[in-house]
Amino acid sequence: MSLLELTGVDVAYGDLPALSSVDLVVEPGETLSVVGANGAGKTTMLRTISGLMRPRRGEIRFEGERIDRWPCHRVVEAGVVHVPEGRKVFPSLAVRENLELGSYTRAAKVRRADSLERVFSMFPRLRERMGQAAGTLSGGSSRCWRSGAP
Predict the structure, then answer these.
(1) Can you tell me the distance from the alpha carbon of 107 to that of 78, in angstroms, rounded to the nearest whole number?
(2) In sequence order, what are the residues at sequence separation of 6 or more whose Cβ sits closer than 8 angstroms to the Cβ of residue 33?
(3) Rounded to an integer, what distance in angstroms lies between the CA atom of residue 110 and that of residue 59?
(4) Which CATH class for the 4-78 domain?
(5) E strands of 14-94, at which residues?
(6) In the chain, where are the structural domains located?
């Protein structure tokens, strides 16, 4: 069974087609890159998989179960998460509070401490700065988070 499968997915903004007959299969353990020009439909596809948009036609299945008509909160609870690009943090919240937002669902809350520890082991500087407002972090400091360098 495939991890994620899109079959014949069409999506539009009103009368303007954005995706046409998209087929995609991601197997467990596989990494997929989607590349294309601005306006090619990459973000629309991700928003549709996440349940933020509805396809006009086609199906989206996650672990064999059809999810394209589910509300987005149910898609998240199933384990499908859309992480936007860029520095999309809540600037007035602390680093730790921003990370905790990733454990919104009941199942994720149970594992929150372990998940935070895993993040802090990968990015030790975040542990040091967990009480700092996320909006005050420098984008360049991310280079040293993993190595622990100043």
Answers:
(1) 10
(2) none
(3) 31
(4) alpha beta
(5) 16-26, 57-62, 65-66
(6) 4-78, 95-145
Quote the mean pLDDT of the chain. 88
Give the tokens for residue 90: 């809540």
**How far apart (Å, rounded) are the C-alpha atoms in residues 14 and 121?**
45
pLDDT digits (tens, 9 = 90+) for 48-69: 999 999 999 999 999 999 999 9
User: Does residue 131 contact residue 94 with C-beta atoms inside 8 Å?
Assistant: yes
pTM as predicted:
0.70
Q: Which residues contact 75 (CB under 8 A, 6 or more apart)?
A: 49, 50, 51, 62, 67
What six digits make up the tokens of 51? 């349940």
Task: Show the tokens assigned to 72.
Answer: 């987005």
Q: Pick from 24, 44, 23, 43: which is nearest to 32 by CA?
A: 24
